[in-house]
């Protein structure tokens, strides 16, 4: 990656990498929120039943 003489990435490859990184970050944030809310959801379901 940082080796001398390494090829440069094209603009399309950079944009694809940015999109993948953005999706990964969004997935991690959504996962964290779901994990935070899961005990509340379990309590709600227990009370509902």
From TrEMBL:
Primary localisation category: mitochondrion
UniProt keyword terms in alphabetical order: Membrane, Mitochondrion, Mitochondrion outer membrane, Protein transport, Transmembrane, Transmembrane helix, Transport
Cleavable signal peptide: none
Domain of life: Eukaryota
Gene Ontology annotations for the cellular component aspect, listed alphabetically: mitochondrial outer membrane
GO terms, biological process: protein targeting to mitochondrion; protein transport
UniProt cross-references to InterPro entries, sorted A to Z: Tom5
Bilayer disposition of the protein: Single-pass membrane protein
Cellular localisation: Mitochondrion outer membrane
Family statement drawn from the similarity comment of this UniProt entry: Belongs to the Tom5 family.
Protein name as it appears in the record: Mitochondrial outer membrane translocase complex, subunit Tom5
Biological source species: Penicilliopsis zonata CBS 506.65
């Amino acid at each position: 990656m940082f080796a001398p003489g390494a090829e440069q990435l094209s603009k399309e490859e950079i944009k694809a990498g940015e999109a993948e990184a953005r999706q990964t970050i969004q997935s991690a944030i959504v996962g964290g929120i779901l994990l935070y809310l899961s005990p509340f959801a379990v309590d709600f379901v227990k009370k509902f039943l």
